[in-house]
Amino acid sequence: MRLSFSAFPDGLAGGALLLLRASLILSLADAQIAAPAADSRLVFLFYLFAAMIGAGLFARGAAILSVIGFAMLTNIANLTELPAFLVHGLDAAALALIGPGAYSLDAHRFGRQIFRLPR
């Protein structure tokens, strides 16, 4: 069975993915502050997604669910907040497509493995 990530980049590319994850965490925190009319369950889910993305644990799934959450917020947002929610959703979509990178728990769980066959 093939994993959903072909590689977990490290070095500069892994650092860039770490910055993208940090940006998405700040976006999730900003979204729940900017939308006080949002349901408290949605705010809790945003905090949960931020924790998962920060640790890099099931980051792709959390990013996909964040895209859905931002789409829900665009329905209740006023016109001044709408562009910010769209940009935050694009950040989440980019992370969902690229993956968490080498500096994540997903990389430790699903990363490169060495199998030694007996002689």
Strand content: under 5%
**Number of helical segments?**
5
Overall pLDDT level: 80
What's the SSE pattern? HHHHH
- Helix/strand-derived class? mainly alpha
Please give the largest β-sheet: none
Question: Please, could you describe this protein's structure?
Answer:
The protein has 119 residues and is an all-alpha fold. The protein has one domain (11-110). Helix content is 68%, strand content 0%. Helix 1 runs antiparallel to helix 2. The protein starts with 10 loop residues before the first helix and ends in a 9-residue tail after the last helix.
In short:
The protein has five helices and no strands.
Keyphrases for this structure?
single chain; 119 residues; mainly alpha; elongated
Layout of helices and strands:
Elements: H1 11-34, H2 40-55, H3 59-76, H4 82-98, H5 105-110
Helix pairs in contact: 1-2, 1-4, 2-3, 3-4
